[in-house]
Design a protein that fits this description.
The complex is a heterotrimer of chains A (380), B (286) and C (162). Chain A is α+β, with helices and mostly antiparallel strands and 380 residues long. Chain A is built from 13 helices and 16 strands. Chain A folds into 2 domains: 11-235, no CATH class; 245-371, no CATH class. Chain A has an 8-stranded mixed sheet with strand order 3-2-8-9-10-11-1-12. Chain A has a 4-stranded antiparallel sheet with strand order 7-6-14-13, with no helix packed on it. Chain A has a two-stranded antiparallel ribbon with strand order 4-5. In chain B, helix 6 links the parallel strand 8 (151-157) and strand 9 (177-183). By secondary structure, chain C is of the alpha+beta class. Chain C has 6 helices and 8 strands, in the order H-H-H-E-E-E-E-E-E-H-E-E-H-H. In chain C, a hairpin with a 3-residue loop joins strand 4 (65-71) and strand 5. Chain C has helices at residues 11-17, 19-22, 26-35, 91-94, 116-125, 127-153, and strands at 36-41, 46-48, 56-62, 65-71, 75-82, 87-88, 102-105, 109-115. In chain C, 38% of the residues lie in helices and 27% in strands. Classes of the chains: A alpha+beta (380), B alpha/beta (286), C alpha+beta (162). Chains in contact: A-B, B-C. The B-C interface holds B 28-31, 84, 86, 127-130, 156-159, 161-162, 182, 184-186, 188, 190-196, 198-200, 202-203, 205, 218-219, 221-222, 225 and C 19, 64, 66-67, 75, 77-81, 83-86, 106, 143, 146-147, 150-151, 153-162. Bound molecules: flavin-adenine dinucleotide and iron/sulfur cluster (2 copies). One iron/sulfur cluster binds next to helix 10 of chain A.
């Protein structure tokens, strides 16, 4: 599903048709997941109705700040990205990868049946499509394929939504991942005042679209949709200079900036939890009281945790500075060697959700020696 | 289950196979070799590995540990693992007796450069428990003795009680491996070498350094200085191989723990060419 | 031992292959060969004794020499074993007061031996020779120092029983 998109004809459907799309997908057995408001943030959760979408809300974001605000219109997708990402569904925070039972003839090990849950993701942004493509490489592109990810991923139906605005934390244009959705979706929407411009990106997407009541796209709609997408480009202020970034970072492992950032980083792991590409995990044993039935549960872990690199004779990365350096050099550097792509899509989540406002683009600029770097977290 | 399903399930990298302890050899204090067989004989027959690879030994309810295979790759039937008690999993394993069952996933990781070493001399430099992952290479080199030049083992231990497999050295010697040992600290009665293992490399005669392959496993500092000695002796950097150790959780490159810069120690390593990782080896906390 | 089969080689030839002298200019090696003698020792012979003066510098050509230090309550403790290409009893050359360890052969040893005052006066009269010899000596001492540091780090502590 969602192969590289070829240019297709766009159509239009009125706002009311979005409910039909959700209903149709639910009828096809999909769990539809989309943006909704919970605890003062826009998060991703199961939805069955457009009324659960954050109609008329937007998000204000900057380093260490996130705030929902009323819009002066009824836009359903008038915000950027929140603390959740789709990895929550494709790479679940907690999942059972194997189990063991004690039998008369000794221990027997099993792995779970492939998960057949079908998810339809509504409201996937361009940077998030890029993040999914990156995790595809991580979990399915190497010699070992993660069965949990693969099962969920191959069943997923992806409805992308083009951004019509950028937050001050967004830098997808620097990472060449957005703001326009160009591939990796089944359907892509651009929200207009009275409806959506829709493009299908796969046969399944086209088939679903064919079952909705659509209209042909007027030139006016087309112009408005292009203008909306251009607005996201124009609003984007943050930049990351990616030129030679891998060698820059891996060639500066002893740069004093690592210590500076290590001094203020709390090692809280927020940045890695919200990042849509971070994939670190650990497996733990969960057994019944008699230790005869054991589940091997995989949970998200983080390179910011001390135990993450510990061995019986010592811990490899025993300072926060070394762990921050590991994160950034991996994300923007060695990721390229490992997966042929940067590990960052420019979504800005790690900047927003860092409690002390550390901004990776500032860190890179400081290491690059750009004029008058700000102190770490200086934007907070 | 359809056959296809059964097939795919077998390939599930998370699936451990049941193994049984056939025999246990006590090696030195806190170290024992576990001779294992697969409970399903078909898996036993299809299981093969290359010298230097490791398995994840899984003790249900306790966890997994990465343990190198220490037996001859040509040996069929049982699979040996030489394990030092280091914590939870290895401690629990030490409490298991003959007949106990547990899980095994593998084999994982890269192998010693046996093919690359063909036709030349091989110097194995190791210390302590580091001999375990090299024993399969020793067996293979000796099985194929005619295909190599001179074979040497330089082996260091903390003290004379820390040496593995001492009962095999004579046999190895007879079959063409020159064995030299040394200890960091002598104890009364020890009349062998005293000093660290890179010194043995400093002074061993090398007839053709340019065609000599070094296979080294031990603490990182020891491997670093061994490589320095090897380079000082004219052995080319691309012929020096080391085996790295990092926290390991999944062994299949999916959990992120074992990263060493661009390298996943579990799937790109543990055996790595020295010149490919040298620049990162002495970076503190990397 | 195989090494004693090299016995028929001249001192100059041996100096050309031994680590301590191999990288020296040929002219220097020739000058050194002039003043050196070759001696053989059976296992268990003392080449120098801790605290005593060391009139000779030994360059081991074959065999091994243990370096022992006397530790009250523990007796002679072997701290290092030296082998082919390594020097011992450098105390005289570098001006220490007496040997800092006892050197005892652990097997048959063949050594190239330099009387210290002869070696020193060669170095004194030809500073070209003196410079390279002292530099080799510094390198040897530095190798010994690094090895001692590694020993100090007790790298296998976590790895093996005490
Ligand atoms: C490629 C490889 C090959 C190895 N081969 C051998 C061998 O042949 N024999 C042997 O005795 N030991 C070997 N080790 C070391 C062995 O894996 C650890 O001693 C073992 O994981 C300790 O587990 P534990 O549960 O007993 O200790 P704990 O300290 O309780 O370990 C808890 C967890 O920490 C991690 N961990 C702790 N120490 C290490 C370590 N040294 N390396 C990697 N992860 C660690 C593991 O995830 C482990 O599950 C090898 C390690 C690696 C990476
Ligand atoms: S590193 Fe930060 S900006 Fe980049 S993808 Fe992750 S969360 Fe987004
Ligand atoms: S960079 Fe910020 S979010 Fe990430 S661990 Fe440090 S304090 Fe937490």
């Amino acid at each position: 599903m969602n192969p590289e998109t070829t240019e297709t004809e766009c159509v239009f459907f009125p706002k009311i048709e979005l409910q039909s799309l959700i209903t149709l997908l639910v009828g096809d057995g999909y769990h539809v997941v989309g943006p909704t408001i919970d605890q003062a943030a826009i998060v991703y959760d199961k939805i069955t109705s457009v009324d659960q979408l954050p109609r008329g809300w937007t998000d204000q974001q900057e380093a260490a700040k996130y705030r929902l605000e009323r819009r002066d219109d009824d836009a359903l997708f008038g915000f950027v990205v929140g603390p959740h990402s789709w990895k929550k569904y494709l790479f679940p925070p907690l999942t059972t990868v194997a189990s063991a039972q004690k039998t008369e003839s000794g221990w027997q090990m099993q792995t779970p049946e492939p998960d057949t849950t079908k998810y339809a993701f509504l409201g996937v942004r361009a940077c998030e499509l890029a993040a999914i493509a990156i995790q595809d490489r991580v979990f399915t592109g190497g010699p070992y394929v993660d069965p949990v990810y693969k099962a969920r991923r191959s069943n997923a139906f992806i409805i992308a939504v083009n951004c019509a605005q950028s937050a001050s934390t967004c830098f997808c244009t620097s990472m060449n991942t957005g703001p326009k959705c160009s591939s990796g979706f089944d359907l892509a929407l651009t929200e207009l005042e009275d409806g959506f411009e829709v493009e299908s990106g796969s046969d399944i997407g086209a088939a679903v679209l064919g079952r909705l009541t659509t209209q042909s796209l007027t030139a006016e709609h087309s112009t408005m949709a292009a203008a909306a997408r251009q607005q996201a480009v124009d609003q984007q202020t943050k930049q990351l200079n990616t030129e030679g970034i891998r060698d820059l970072l891996l060639g500066n492992l002893d740069h004093p900036r690592w210590k500076d950032v290590g001094d203020i980083c709390l090692g809280c792991t927020n940045c890695t939890m919200v990042c849509p590409t971070c994939f670190c995990s650990s497996v733990e044993e969960v057994s019944d009281l008699a230790n005869e039935n054991v589940e091997r549960q995989r949970h998200w872990d983080s390179c910011f945790n001390l135990s993450y690199s510990s061995m019986s004779h010592g811990t490899t990365r025993n300072t926060i500075a070394s762990r921050y350096r590991q994160w950034l050099t991996h994300k923007l550097g060695s990721w390229e060697n490992q997966f042929g792509t940067s590990g960052c899509v420019g979504c800005g989540r790690c900047i927003t959700w860092c409690p002390v406002g550390i901004d990776l683009t500032e860190e890179v600029a400081a290491i690059r020696g750009d004029a008058a770097p700000k102190p770490p977290g200086g934007a907070a | 289950m359809t056959q296809l399903e059964a097939c795919t399930r077998l390939l599930d990298p998370w699936l451990a196979h049941t193994v049984r302890i056939v025999d246990i050899t006590d090696e030195i204090a806190d170290v024992a070799t576990y001779h294992l067989e697969f409970v399903d004989p078909d898996i036993g027959k299809s299981f093969s590995f290359r010298a230097g690879q490791f398995n994840m030994l899984y003790l249900p309810g306790v966890g997994e540990a990465a343990i190198s295979i220490s037996s001859d790759p040509a040996q069929r039937g049982t699979l040996d693992h030489t394990v030092r008690i280091a914590g939870n999993v290895t401690g629990e394993l030490a409490r298991a007796g003959d007949g106990a069952t547990f899980g095994l996933r593998g084999p994982f990781g890269s192998a010693w450069p046996i093919e690359e070493a063909l036709g030349g001399d091989v110097v194995i430099v190791t210390g302590g428990i580091g001999l375990a992952p090299l024993r399969p290479a020793i067996y293979e080199l000796l099985n194929r003795k005619d295909e190599f030049g001179e074979l040497s083992l330089l082996y260091g231990a903390r003290n004379p009680f820390g040496m593995l497999y001492t009962s095999e050295y004579d046999d190895w010697g007879r079959r063409g491996l020159s064995v030299t040992t040394t200890v960091d600290r002598a104890s009364p009665g020890w009349d062998g070498n005293v000093g660290v293992v890179p010194q043995l490399l400093d002074r061993m005669p090398l007839s053709d350094p340019a065609n000599t392959t070094v296979m080294c496993c031990g603490p990182e500092v020891m491997m670093w200085y061994t490589a320095r000695s090897a380079l000082g002796r004219g052995i080319p950097p691309e012929r020096i191989w080391i085996s790295l150790e990092r926290n390991m959780n999944c062994a299949i490159g999916l959990c992120g723990h074992c990263q060493f810069g661009p390298t996943f120690v579990c799937k790109d390593g543990p055996v790595l060419r020295y010149d490919r990782v040298a620049s990162l080896l002495r970076v503190e906390g990397f | 031992m195989t090494e004693s089969s090299h016995n028929d080689r001249s001192i100059g030839e041996q100096l050309a292959t031994l680590q301590f002298t191999a990288s020296l200019p040929e002219s220097v090696r020739d000058a050194l060969a002039e003043i050196a003698t070759e001696r053989c020792f059976a296992a268990g012979e003392f080449l120098c004794r801790e605290g005593e003066s060391t009139p000779e510098l030994f360059l081991i050509a074959a065999g091994h020499v243990g370096l022992d230090m006397l530790v009250p309550g523990r007796g002679q403790v072997r701290v290092l074993t030296l082998g082919p290409g390594e020097v011992l009893a450098w105390s005289a050359v570098v001006g220490n007061h007496g040997a800092t360890a006892t050197g005892v052969t652990t097997d048959e040893v063949r050594a190239i031996v330099f009387e210290d005052h002869v070696l020193l006066s060669l170095c004194q009269t030809s500073h070209d020779v003196g410079y390279v010899v002292m530099r080799e000596l510094a390198k040897a001492i530095s190798r010994r120092l690094v090895a001692t540091r590694l020993q100090l780090l007790d790298l296998f502590e976590e790895q093996s029983p005490s």
